[in-house]
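Open question from group meeting: does this chain pack into something compact, or does most of it stay loose? Before anyone orders reagents, we agreed to write out a predicted structure and look at it together. Recording both the input and the output here so the notebook holds the full record.
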Amino acid sequence: MIIPAMAIAALITLGFLMGGQENKDFRLTKNLDIYISLFRELNAFYVDEIDPEKLVHKSINSMLSTLDPYTVFYPEEDTGDLDFMTTGKYGGFGSLIRKSGDYILVTNVYQGFPADKSGIRPGDLMISIDGKSLRGVSSDKASDMLKGEPGTEAEIIIRRNGEDIVKRVKRERISISAVPYYGMVDENTGYIRFTNFTQNCISDVRQALTDLKDNQGAGDLILDLRNNPGGLVAEAVEIVNLFVRPGQEVVSTRGRAKQYDAVFRTTKSPVAPDMPLVILINRGSASASEIVAGAIQDLDRGVIIGERSYGKGLVQVARPLSYKAQVKMTTAKYYIPSGRCIQAVDFSHPNEDGSVGQIPDSLISTFSTRNGRPVKDGGGIIPDIDVPSDMLNRFAGELYVQNMIFDFATRYYWTRPQPSTLDSLKITNEDLQEFKTFLSERNFTYKTGSESLLEELAGTAAEEGLYEANREELEKLKSGLSHTLDRDMDLYKNEVTELIESELAGRYFYDRGMVEYSISRDSQIREAVRIAGERDRYISLLSAPDSI
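C-alpha cells returned:
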C-alpha cells in the first residue's frame, strides 16, 4: 500500500509531538526516581545520622532558587507566615523585634494590641518566653515563639534600664491596619498613607477617603504608596475603582497555564471619580502598588510622583502540597492597561535592594496612555515627575545605622514626661548636648566619605611605592579632612534633631505620630501638595504632548 506524502508528514509530526511529551514525562520520572534512590542511600549509609526533613527542605529551597525570588516553599509550621502576608492577620502580641546582642530587642509595638496593653515598649530586651531563654535565639525563632493561638497566654521577662520585669501577655488575633495615618496636609489636600494590600484593606482606604472628602473638606488627594510591598491583586483593583468608573480594565494576567489568565476590571461606582489625585511611589513600591500606580497612570486618572518603582510584575498563587505544606508559586505576569508589563525585563544589574536597576535602551518599549502620553516598560513604573527621596548625610546615617538614635530615644522616653501633643515634642539644645555626651559614652565613631577615600589612596600609594615621597602632603590632607563630634553635631544639628524627634514621635504617638511628624518635612510630599494645588499644571501633566 502506498501512503500519501502528506499523511506521512502528519504521522511524523504527531509522532514528534507525542514523543516530545513522552520524553518530558520520562525525564521527570527518571530524575524523581534518581532523587528518591539517592535519598535512600544517604539515609541508609551516610557516615553520620541525617535529618530527613532538613535535608529535603534544603534541597527544595535550592531547586526553587533557580526559578525566581518569589516562588517559595512553606512547610506546615511556616504556613502562618503565608497567611499573614495575604490577610495581615496572625495570633500574637502585636510587636516588632530584632536581634540585639545576646537577646531580642523590641523595636515597635502596635497601639491597642497585647504588647502595648501589657506595657511592653520599644527598647525593652526580651530575656525569656515561658521560661525558655532567648539568649542566642534568632529573631525568626523568637517570632515563632511569640505567635500562637489567640487567647493563649505567655510569660515574658523583659529587661528595662537594667531591671528584669515579668509580663504576662495574652495573645490576640492581630490585624494590622493598611492605613496607619490619614489627614489633611493643608486646607484642601487630603493625605493617605497606605502600607499593604492585605485582605479587605479596601475598607481602610475607603473609610479614610470618604472621611477626608465628606467631613474634612479635601478637594485633592495624595495616596502614598511608598514602601508598600503589594499583596492581593483583587484589592489593587478595588483601590483603583475608588477613583475610576465601572468597566475600566485595571490589570490582566497571562501565564503558561491558561487557568491563570484573567482580566480585572472596575465594577462599582467610584467614591471620588473626579478628585485630583497624586500618587507617591519609590523603589519600595512593588507588585499591587505598581498595579495601582500603573493603572492610574495609563488611564490618565492621576499624576505619579517620586522614584521608579520596584519592578515586580509576577503573579504568585499558593498551591497546597502534601502534609499541609504549601508552595507560593509564580504562575503569570501582570499587564496594565497600556499593555506594558510591570516585571523588570533585566535583573542582571539590580539595585542593592533588589529593585530594577539600569535597563539597556534596546530592551525598553514605548506604550501610550489613554490620552496618548508615552510611557515605557522595562520594569516598574516611571513617575511622571521624578523626585528623589530625601537622603541622610553620612553622619546622620551612621547615627541611625549604629542605633544611636534608637537607644538615645529609649533613654529619653523613660526620663521625660509624655508630651501632650505631637507639636509640643521638641528637642532642645540641652537635649542635644545630652545626646553628644551619650555618643561619647558609647564610643561612637565613624569615617567620613573623604576619610575613607583618603585611606584608600594612601594604601594604593604605599603599594606603588609612592607613600613615603608624599607622606607630608597626605598627612596635611588627612588633617584637613578630619572631623570631630563637636563639628559634626554643629554642622548637622537640624538633621540630628529631626531624627531624634521622629523616633520619639513613634514612641509617644505610635506609627501615626511618626507618619504625621514626617509629612511637613518630606520633599516628595511637598511636591505632591504643590502639583495637586496647581490645577493647570496638573491637567497639563495628564494631557497628550501635542495638546499641551
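Observations to bring back to the group:
The longest helix spans residues 5-45.
DSSP finds 17 helices and 21 strands in the chain.
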